[in-house]
Amino acid sequence: MNSSEFRRRGKEMVDFVADYLEGIEGRQVYPDVEPGYLRPLIPTTAPEEPDTFEDILNDVEKIIMPGAASPACTELETVMMDWLGKMLKLPEAFLAGQVGEGGGVIQGSASEATLVALLAARTKVVRRLQAASPGLTQGAIMEKLVAYSSDQAHSSVERAGLIGGVKIKAIPSDGKFAMRASALQEALERDKAEGLIPFFVVATLGTTSCCSFDNLLEVGPICTKEDVWLHIDAAYAGSSFICPEFRHLLNGVEFADSFNFNPHKWLLVNFDCSAMWVKKRTDLIGAFKLDPLYLKHGHQDSGLITDYRHWQLPLGRRFRSLKMWFVFRMYGVKGLQAYIRKHVRLAHEFEHLVHQDPRFEICAEVTLGLVCFRLKGSNKLNEDLLERINSAKKIHLVPCHLRDKFVLRLAICARTVESAHVRQAWEHIQQLATDVLRAEKD
Fold it and tell me: Which family does it belong to (predicted)?
C-alpha cells in the first residue's frame, strides 16, 4: 500500500468508524452468536496471495461485528494463532484446532511471555513435588528452584527470575555463541548434587547480541529427560521461520513446552503483538486461574470457549488479532516471505561490503538480517567510531559485547529499506572510520 492509497483507505476507515458511531443505537448490546461461531466462517489457513482491502473490510462487518467484542475478540485470536502456527509448521500439539490441548495466545512482549512460562513452570513443579511429599511447603521448594539460559540470552530472562523469585543461571555458550548439551547437562548435574531443583530452561533462537541459535536438537532431549520445562524465545528470528529455507532453525521445537516470537518485530504487525504457544493450555490456566463472581459468565464451564485472562498476567486485553488478520490477508504468505527474504538479502549485501574493506572484520555468522562487525583494533577505537556514527544522526547503530570485543551491529529492519540505503550507510561508516583512524594516528 503506497502513501496515496493509505490516505484513501485511512479516510474510508474514519467513515467506517463514524457510521458505526452514528448507528450504534440500532445495534444489540449483547450478540446473538454462540461460542464457536467464527471458526467455520473463515479459512483454516492464511491466504498464499493477498486479498483486497475491500474484501477484508466487508468481512469485518459480516464476520466480526456480529460477535464484537465478544466472542469475536477471543475466537479470531485462536484462529489467527493457528494460522500463524501453520505458517511456521509448528507441531500439531501447539495448535488449538477443534479439540487440541495446546494453543496460542497474544502476549504484550517476549519478556512477558518468558515470565508467564516461568510462572507456569514454577506452579507445575511445586504442585508435583507437593503431591509426592505433602509435607513440603512452597517456600521450601522455591528456595531450591533453578532456571537456566545461555549467557547470550536477553536480560528479560534474568528479570523473569527476579520477578518469579527463582535463581537464574547462565550456561556458557560455545564458539558460535550457542548453548550446547554438554554445558547444560554439567550445570544440571552439579546443581542436583547440591540439592537444588532444576525446573526451567530458556533456549534462544536469534540472540539479541548476534542472532546466534541455541542447539534445540541437543538441549531439547535433555529437558525432556530431566522433566524440565523448555521455553523457546525467538523474539526476532521467529518471523523468518515462515520461509522454508529458514525453518530448519526451528528444528527441535517438538521438545518445547512453550514457544514465543514477536510478529511486531519482523512480520509487519504493529506493536504490541507477541505470539506465544503452549503444548498444554492447562499448564497456564492452572497457574493463573481465579474466578471471582464479577468475572463469571454463562459459558465458562461449557468447554466451548477459551478464557484468555487465564493465559496471561493482565485481565483486560485488546483486539490484537484483528491487526494480524489484516496483515496476513493484505500481504498473503508469499508477500510476507518476500519481505523477510529481501531483508536477509540486504544483510548479506552489507556483509559483502564489510568483507571488501580490510580495515573491518565480521564478528558472527550472518544468518538473518543482523550483521555484527567492527574495525580491527581496540575496543576504544570502535567505541569512538560508534560515537561518531550516532552523533552524525544519519543512521543509528546499537552495540554489543561478544566475549571481550566491543562490536557494532547493523540491523535491516525498516519496511521500505532498499539496496541504496544499505550502500549509503556503508559509505557513511567508511568515511567516519577513516576519520577515527586518522584521529588515532594524530
Answer: Belongs to the group II decarboxylase family.
CATH topology of domain 334-440: Aspartate Aminotransferase, domain 1 (3.90.1150)
Tell which CATH architecture fits domain 71-318. 3-Layer(aba) Sandwich (3.40)
Distance between CA atoms of residues 183 and 219, nearest Å: 10
DSSP 309: G
- Spatial separation of the C-alpha atoms in residues 74 and 83, rounded to whole Å: 14
Alpha helix (H) residue ranges in 212-288: 216-226, 263-266, 281-288
DSSP-based three-state secondary structure for 280: coil
Cα 216 to Cα 86, 169, 223, 254, distances in angstroms: 20, 18, 10, 9
**Cβ within 8 Å of residue 179, ≥6 positions away:** 149, 150, 152, 171, 173, 203, 204, 214, 215, 219
How far is it, in rounded angstroms, from Cα 203 to Cα 215? 8
Measured CA to CA, the distance from residue 316 to residue 295 in angstroms comes to 11
- 317 secondary structure, DSSP code: -
Q: What kind and span of H or E run contains 401? A: strand 400-402
Q: At what angle do helices 110-132 and 155-164 cross, to 10 degrees?
A: 40
Q: What is the pLDDT of residues 369-381, one digit of tens each?
A: 999 999 999 999 9
Domain ranges (residues) in the chain = 3-62, 71-318, 334-440
> pLDDT tens digits, residue range 93-102?
999 876 678 8
For 338-350, give one letter per residue: b (16+ CB within 10 A) or e. Answer: ebbeebbebbbeb
